[in-house]
Amino acid sequence: MTELRTAMLSTGIAGLDRMLRGGIPKGHVIAVIGTYGTGKTTLGLHFIYEGLKNGENCIVMSFDEDEDSIIKSAKSIGMDLERFRDNLKIFRLEAEEVRKSLSRIESDLFEIISGFNTSRVLIDTVSVLETLFDEGGRYKMLATIRMILKSAGVTAIITSEPDKYNPSYSKYGLLEYICDGLICLKMIRANEMEEPTLGLEVVKMRRVNHSRKPRPYTITDRGISVFEEAEIF
Ligand SMILES: Nc1ncnc2c1ncn2[C@@H]1O[C@H](COP(=O)(O)OP(=O)(O)OP(=O)(O)O)[C@@H](O)[C@H]1O
Ligand SMILES: [Mg+2]
């Protein structure tokens, strides 16, 4: 059997790279799903910062935080984004604007991404955007974003919220089908009185023989650490 060898991009989180047997395959568009405060933005920033340190051009598109806030969040976990101003573009997008003119945004985004010789893209988060479309429109919007990222040849992370009752599924059950990979960040409680444990699960990663078991992780002033050999309880 011939093995398909794709280059892997380090996520910048050693334990997660080990769970992924190397990192995210180049050209993959993956989803990171988690409730508020589970570290979606932080994980995305690790991925971007790793690229910047390698001399890659990276783009952050944020529906949540403006440029200043992203730079501050990164600084609080020891990442100096300002050092890489020439290789980094940060955009704040308005969900309502994207909804109103998807086709204009489509051409703008493609131009921005392909014109910058971009290697990595973070889109954080599509949650509000998802709520603004009906079911058909939502699928079309996510498929459009995927198509832009794929045709620009970048490796990308899209963050979103999970389903209220099942943290392994996206809120609308679409993103996991649109994306090549899905990583879930979960807050797991033994009981309501205990401090929650954070658990990371690689639910899907096309063409990777990844670990499936949820593993504990922490967020500190150095960012996310994944303990890929530890048990959650
Ligand atoms: N410098 C830091 N030191 C310690 N913990 C931190 C630090 N920065 C962030 N955290 C922890 O990480 C959490 C937030 O991480 P992050 O913003 O990446 O989550 P998120 O999933 O993007 O949240 P949201 O859905 O609100 O955008 C904080 O609530 C805090 O618990
Ligand atoms: Mg966030």
- What is the residue-mean pLDDT, rounded to a whole number? 93
CATH topology of one domain: Rossmann fold
CATH class of one domain: Alpha Beta
Q: What ligand molecules are bound, each kind once?
A: adenosine-5'-triphosphate, magnesium ion
Strand order of the largest sheet: 5-4-6-7-3-8-9-10-11
Question: What is the CATH superfamily of one domain?
Answer: P-loop containing nucleotide triphosphate hydrolases
Give a count of the beta strands, DSSP E runs of length 2 or more: 11
Indicate the structural class.
alpha/beta
Query: How many helical elements?
Result: 8
Approximately how much helix is present in the residues?
Answer: 25-40%
In angstroms, what separates the terminal alpha carbons? 39 Å
Radius of gyration: 17 Å
The largest sheet is: 9 strands, mixed
What is the CATH architecture assignment of one domain? 3-Layer(aba) Sandwich
Uncertain regions spanning at least 5 consecutive residues: none
Shape: globular
- Strand-and-helix sequence, N→C? EHEEHEHEHHEHHEHEEEE
Write the layout of secondary structure elements.
Elements: E1 8-9, H1 14-19, E2 24-25, E3 29-34, H2 40-53, E4 57-62, H3 67-76, E5 88-92, H4 95-100, H5 102-115, E6 118-124, H6 127-131, H7 135-152, E7 155-160, H8 175-178, E8 181-188, E9 197-205, E10 215-220, E11 223-226
Parallel strand pairs: 3-7, 3-8, 4-5, 4-6, 6-7
Antiparallel strand pairs: 1-2, 8-9, 9-10, 10-11
Helix pairs in contact: 5-7
The structure holds adenosine-5'-triphosphate and magnesium ion.
